[in-house]
TrEMBL record:
PANTHER family according to UniProt: AMINOTRANSFERASE, AMINOTRANSFERASE CLASS-III
The species this protein was found in: Mesorhizobium liriopis
Listed InterPro entries: Aminotrans_3 (IPR005814), PyrdxlP-dep_Trfase (IPR015424), PyrdxlP-dep_Trfase_major (IPR015421), PyrdxlP-dep_Trfase_small (IPR015422)
Record protein name field: Aspartate aminotransferase family protein
Taxonomic superkingdom: Bacteria
Record-linked Gene3D superfamilies: Aspartate Aminotransferase, domain 1, Type I PLP-dependent aspartate aminotransferase-like (Major domain)
Keywords on record: Aminotransferase, Pyridoxal phosphate, Transferase
Assigned protein family: Belongs to the class-III pyridoxal-phosphate-dependent aminotransferase family.
Keyword Nucleotidyltransferase included in the entry's annotation: no
Molecular functions per Gene Ontology: transaminase activity
């Protein structure tokens, strides 16, 4: 039986009857019905009614090599026939996670050489939290267990992921967060910088918020700081240039581990394999998922720095943690084929040298002067457009979050998949986009903004 036997209305009715979607107002969705995406090719997805949509979100920040890659399907097929599954518990291993771990050690920052697998970014962050707490126990400092994070951070949707994240709506529904996690100011200049404050001064002030939290708790109580190099789901918030070097300096000064969440920024999005390399930092853990397989298989890899890994492997004692699908052979085979494509097609160099700088330029030229646009910003192939009611004062529309949804809906109707988060429009296209694709997207966004202006400014 295939979906072609069903009409859209029938599929929507079944969807409403049986399928609870992630991050959804279920009552609302039942009224509206889902858009059925039924196939995809290159940079495009197609819905059940035949509409072709340019996917400026790469699925959900993950399809970095684009859709329809036969090499990835073949890698999965071959591995499934040879060995579809075996676990890596009880002194067993399978070859593909081993070869992938070696490859990841090769492309990661120099001091990062070990890998712990899971199936999602959330799982990887759970692993990271358990691992760094275990690290301090093995170091004889069990009281060093507090983690500092940031408001507006997104680190996943499990209990630990939500606790690490700084999304207030998610925290309100937690009813009991993982203890000893505190959240400080995000390095988000558009809303948090003082009038006239330079980028550098704001970067130092945002980093000082982390140091203040360390000093408040006492450095002997603080295990780690966690952050996304560029906050993704929170609205592509790009920190001041000096922020990460200063955070690293502060962490080293107080002997606090640096946990970097590269679930979105990993595997080429910023024009380097990892944003840590773009910012010149050497983290103790790097959480990765999504583009590790370009989304073709669920797989995450927590990359573990030498300091943490050495303590774990030298001091020993069982680390009571792991997942059935840790090091899944099929997912790892697809990841190897995916990294191969990224390398062979020079996609990272293209982002760094060509499409990344081009996106930054045309975002400004094509959209910067639009009356609804308070700011455009980008880094590699991640971009954001701040939607405002008044350009000069940066005043937002009421109610908060509504205006960006209006722009987003016009964009989708005009054939472009973008996302609205709060009052910010965000994009994160596949790395296969060319200058021409970027130009096409800019025209569509401009049209969507014009239509939204007619709705919002009347
Ligand atoms: N960390 C970051 C930075 C993310 O953006 C996400 C997902 N968007 C996650 C963690 C969680 O990943 P997953 O949805 O695969 O659990």
């Amino acid at each position: 039986m295939t979906y072609q036997n069903f009409s859209l209305a029938q599929l929507q009715a079944l969807d409403a009857a049986h399928h609870l979607h992630p991050f959804t107002d279920h009552k609302d969705l039942r009224g509206a019905g889902s858009r059925m995406i039924v196939r995809a090719d290159g940079p495009y997805v197609y819905d059940s009614e035949g509409h072709r949509i340019l996917d400026a979100m790469a699925g959900l920040w993950c399809v970095n090599v684009g859709y329809g890659r036969k090499e990835l399907a073949e890698a999965a097929y071959k591995q499934m026939l040879e060995l579809p599954y075996y676990n890596s518990f009880f002194r067993c291993s399978t070859p593909t996670p081993v070869l992938l771990a070696q490859k990841l050690a090769e492309i990661a920052p120099k001091s990062v050489n070990q890998v712990f697998y899971g199936s999602s970014g959330s799982e990887a962050n759970d692993t990271a939290l358990r691992l760094i707490r275990q690290f301090w126990v093995l170091e004889g400092k069990p009281e060093k267990n507090r983690v500092i994070s940031r408001k507006m951070a997104y680190h996943g949707s499990t209990i630990a992921g939500t606790s690490l994240g700084g999304m207030s709506g998610m925290h309100d529904q937690l009813h009991g967060a993982v203890p000893n996690i505190v959240h400080v100011m995000a390095p988000y200049a558009f809303e948090n910088a003082e009038p006239g404050e330079s980028e550098e001064a704001f970067g130092l002030r945002a980093a000082k918020a982390v140091e203040d939290a360390i000093l408040e708790a006492g450095a002997d109580k603080v295990a780690a700081f966690i952050g996304e190099p560029i906050m993704g789901a929170g609205g592509v918030k790009i920190p001041p240039r000096n922020y990460w070097a200063e955070i690293q300096r502060i962490c080293r000064k107080h002997d606090v581990l640096l946990m970097i969440d590269e679930v979105i920024t990993g595997y080429g999005r910023t024009g380097e394999w990892f944003a840590s390399q773009a910012y010149g930092i050497e983290p103790d853990t790097i959480t990765t998922a999504k583009a590790l397989t370009s989304g073709y298989q669920p797989l995450s890899a927590l990359l573990v720095g030498d300091r943490v890994a050495e303590t774990l492997t030298e001091k020993g004692g069982e680390f009571y943690h792991g997942y059935t699908y840790s090091g899944h052979p099929v997912a790892c085979a697809v990841a190897l084929a995916n990294l191969d494509i990224i390398e062979k097609e020079g996609l990272i160099d293209r982002v760094r040298e060509d499409t990344g700088p081009y996106l930054a330029k045309v975002l400004q030229e094509a959209l910067g002067d639009h009356p609804l646009v308070g700011e455009v910003r980008s880094f590699g192939l991640m971009g954001a457009i701040e939607i405002v009611a008044d350009k000069a004062s940066r005043q937002r529309f009421e109610p908060s979050g509504h205006a960006a949804v209006v722009v987003r809906d016009h964009a989708v109707v005009s054939g472009l998949m973008m996302r609205a988060t709060g009052d910010t429009m965000i994009m994160s296209p596949p790395l296969i986009w060319t200058r021409e694709t970027i130009d096409t997207a800019m025209e569509m966004i401009r049209t969507a903004l014009d239509k939204a202006a007619q709705d919002l400014l009347k």
